[in-house]
Every structure is written in C-alpha cells, then in structure tokens.
C-alpha cells in the first residue's frame, strides 16, 4: 500500500523502513526528547531509541568539541 501511494503521489518508491530511519533522523535534528521519539517511533525499549539518537551528525560533533575546547579555556 505504501508503494502504491508513493507512486500515485509522484514520489520515488523507497523501502518503508527507510522512512522510519528518516523520521528518527529528523527527530534527532529537531532535538525531540528521546522518550517522546520512542512514542512516535513505537519502540518498545528506550534502548533502541537511544541507539538511534547516538548517531550524531558531523555538525553536532564539531559543536560539542568546540564547547569542550572552550570549557578547557582554549579558543575553538
């Protein structure tokens, strides 16, 4: 049904599981609390949700390293 609706909408058909991954990535980018994301993604265990949230973007890693550098008294 998903593929049929995607074709009717003129969208490229992708595996349904990819839409879940995209949704989780967007929730991370929007800084949605992991417990809220767990409910949206229907994960039975918070551990699965936090694993998804552990995938940080390169920008987030750079920002975190910059904050760490500043906290240590070094300019970023």
Present the secondary structure layout:
Layout: H1 2-8, H2 16-29, H3 34-41, H4 46-53, H5 58-71
Helix pairs in contact: 3-4
Task: Describe this structure as you would to a colleague.
- This protein is mainly alpha-helical and 76 residues long.
- It has one domain (17-71).
- It contains 5 helices and no strands.
- The chain has helices at 2-8, 16-29, 34-41, 46-53, 58-71.
- Helix 3 (34-41) crosses helix 4 (46-53).
- The chain is elongated, with a radius of gyration of 17 Å.
- The termini are far apart.
Tags for this entry?
5 helices, single chain, mainly alpha, 76 residues
Name the overall outline: elongated
Biggest sheet statistics: none
Structural class: mainly alpha
Count up the helices.
5
Tell me the distance between the termini.
50 Å
Radius of gyration: 17 Å
Low-confidence stretches: none
Instruction: Name the average pLDDT.
Output: 86
Order of helices and strands: HHHHH
Amount of beta strand = under 5%
Q: Provide the number of structural domains.
A: 1
- Total number of strands: 0
In percent, how helical is the residue content?
55-70%
